[in-house]
Design goal:
Layout: H1 14-23, H2 25-40, H3 49-68, H4 78-100, H5 102-105, H6 107-110, H7 119-145, H8 152-182, H9 186-198, H10 214-218, H11 221-234, H12 241-265, H13 269-272
Helix pairs in contact: 2-7, 3-4, 3-7, 4-7, 4-8, 4-9, 4-11, 7-8, 8-11, 8-12, 11-12
C-alpha cells in the first residue's frame, strides 16, 4: 500500500498558486455560501442585518456627532456623509474580523483534508462583499432623498475602492489568521484595535480637518478609499488621486506581506491548531 503525504509548497509560486485556486474554485464558492448561510441562520430578518448595523450606527453618529458635537461634513448632510464612510469601513472591519478568525473556526476541516488554506480567509471576504452590496441599497435611497444623483464616474470608481478595501482586509486577515492559530490573544486584541482604528479613519469626520497630520492620516489604507468614495459619489470635492494612490499602495503592501506570512506559516497549521 502506497502512502501519499501531501505537504504545502515551501516557496511562493504565484502562477501555480493561482492555478490551484482556479482548480478548487468550486470549493471557494461552497465555503462562501456556507459562511453566508451560517451568519444568518435562524435569524428573524435574515440578510437585512447587513443593512441594520450600518444604518443604526449612522443614526447614532448623526445624533451625537452631527447634531450635538456639530462635526463638519464638507457641506454634505451628515447622515449621508457618515453612511458613505460607514459603508466601506463596515465592510473592512467585518471582513477583517471574520478572516482573522477563519482558521480557528474551521479547525475540523483544517486538519482532515487538503485544500488551499487561503480559501478560508478569502471566503470571509466574499461574504463581506455580499453584505456590502446589500447595504449599498440604503445609500442609493439616501442619495435620492437628499438629491445627490450618482454620476457615472462615481459608480465606475466604486468597484476599485471596494477592491482596494478587499486587499487591505485580506492582507491583514491572512496575517492575523495565521498568528491567531498560535496566539489566541488576537481574538481579544483585534476588536479593540478595530474600534481604535475607526477613530483614526475619516469615517465620522472629513479628512480635510487633519491639517498637519494629513500625511500621517494618509498612511491609514482606508483614508484615501473613504475620501475618494465621498468625492466620487457625493461630488463634495475633487478626488484626491495622490491620496488614493498612497492608500492603494499601502493595501498592496499589506496584501503581499499577508500572503507571504500565511504561506510561510501554512505548514504548521495542523500542528498548532
Amino acid at each position: 500500500m502506497t502512502e501519499l503525504i501531501i505537504k504545502p509548497k515551501r516557496t511562493l509560486n504565484f502562477r501555480s498558486d493561482l492555478q490551484e485556486i482556479w482548480q478548487y474554485r468550486e470549493l471557494l464558492y461552497f465555503l462562501a455560501w456556507r459562511d453566508l448561510k451560517v451568519r444568518y441562520k435562524q435569524t428573524a430578518i435574515g440578510v437585512l442585518w447587513a443593512v441594520f448595523q450600518p444604518f443604526t450606527t449612522m443614526v447614532v453618529f448623526t445624533i451625537f456627532f452631527g447634531n450635538l458635537a456639530k462635526m463638519p461634513s464638507d457641506g454634505i448632510p451628515y447622515p449621508i456623509f457618515v453612511y458613505t464612510g460607514l459603508l466601506l469601513w463596515q465592510f473592512f472591519s467585518t471582513a477583517l474580523a471574520d478572516a482573522s478568525d477563519s482558521l480557528t473556526r474551521n479547525q475540523a476541516i483544517l486538519t482532515k483534508v487538503y485544500f488551499p488554506r487561503i480559501f478560508l480567509p478569502l471566503s470571509s471576504i466574499i461574504v463581506g462583499v455580499v453584505d456590502f452590496l446589500i447595504s449599498t441599497v440604503i445609500l442609493i435611497g439616501m442619495m435620492f432623498y437628499y438629491g445627490y444623483a450618482p454620476n457615472l464616474a462615481g459608480l465606475l470608481l466604486l468597484p476599485l475602492l471596494l477592491f482596494i478595501s478587499m486587499m487591505a482586509a485580506l492582507g491583514l486577515g491572512l496575517f492575523l489568521s495565521a498568528v491567531n492559530l498560535k496566539y489566541r490573544d488576537v481574538r481579544y486584541v483585534l476588536p479593540f484595535f478595530i474600534q481604535l482604528m475607526m477613530f483614526v479613519t475619516p469615517v465620522i469626520y472629513p479628512a480635510s480637518i487633519a491639517g498637519k497630520y494629513a500625511k500621517l492620516l494618509a498612511l491609514n489604507p482606508m483614508t484615501g478609499v473613504i475620501s475618494a468614495a465621498r468625492a466620487a459619489l457625493l461630488g463634495n470635492a475633487v478626488i484626491n488621486w495622490p491620496l488614493l494612490a498612497i492608500s492603494g499602495g499601502a493595501c498592496l503592501v499589506l496584501l503581499v506581506i499577508g500572503i507571504l506570512y500565511f504561506k510561510k506559516s501554512e505548514k504548521y497549521f495542523a500542528d498548532v491548531v
